[in-house]
Amino acid sequence: MRRSQELPPRCPKPTHELLQLVTGPWTMHILWVLSSAGPTRFGALRRQIDGISSRLLTERLRDLEEKGFIYHHYEPTIPPAVTGRISSDISNRGDCSTIDDELTSGN
Q1: Do the Cβ atoms of 76 and 46 come closer than 8 Å?
Q2: E strands, 4-50, where?
C-alpha cells in the first residue's frame, strides 16, 4: 500500500474508502452536476464539466456506479443512449438543495 493510501490511525475502513472516492479529482463536481441537472447523457455531462477528459469522466462514472452513487440506464438504440443519474438510494438520504443552500450562505 502506498503511503498516501494508508489508513490514518483509528480511521474505519469504510470511512476511508468513502473519503477516497469522493475526494478524487472531479468526483464532487460530477455528483453536483448530476444532482442539479437530473438524468444526463455522457456527452452533455462532459460539456457541463469544463476541462475534464472523456477518459477521466468515464473512470469516475464507473467508480461512482460501482459504489452505488449513480445509476446508468442503457437503451440499445443507434447510437446507444446511456443516461446517468444519482441513484435513488443516495437521493433519498438527503436533500441536495439543503446542502447547496448551506454552501452558498457560508454556514
Answers
A1: no
A2: 40-41
Q: Whose CA is closest to 85, among 44, 48, 42, 40?
A: 40
Report phi then psi at 14, rounded to 5. Answer: -60, -40
Reading the block at residue 46, the C-alpha cell is 462532459
Task: Locate the DSSP E strands across the chain.
Answer: 40-41, 70-75, 81-86
Q: Which CATH number fits domain 11-105: 3.30.1360.180, 3.40.50.300, 1.10.10.10, 2.130.10.10?
A: 1.10.10.10
Q: What pTM did the predictor assign?
A: 0.69
Query: Strand pairing partners for 42?
Result: none
Q: Please state the φ and ψ torsions of residue 30, each to the nearest 5 degrees.
A: -60, -45
One pLDDT digit (tens) per residue for the chain, 107 residues? 455 566 566 667 777 788 888 888 999 999 999 999 989 999 999 999 999 999 999 999 999 999 888 998 888 988 888 888 888 766 555 544 544 454 455 44
